[in-house]
Amino acid sequence: GKPADRAVTTPLGPVGAVALCLGATVGYAQEISGGQPSERSTVEFSPVSPFIRIYAAQFAHRLTNADELIVGGAYTNIKYDDGQSHAPTFIMGYRGYIWRKAHGEYQLWPSYNWYWEANEEKYYEGAELWNELRFGYTFDFDIGQTPWFMNVQYLVGWGLYGDDSKPQSWKDQVGREGEAFAAPMDFMGWPF
Question: Which residues have C-beta within 8 Å of that of residue 36, sequence separation ≥ 6?
Answer without folding.
Answer: 65
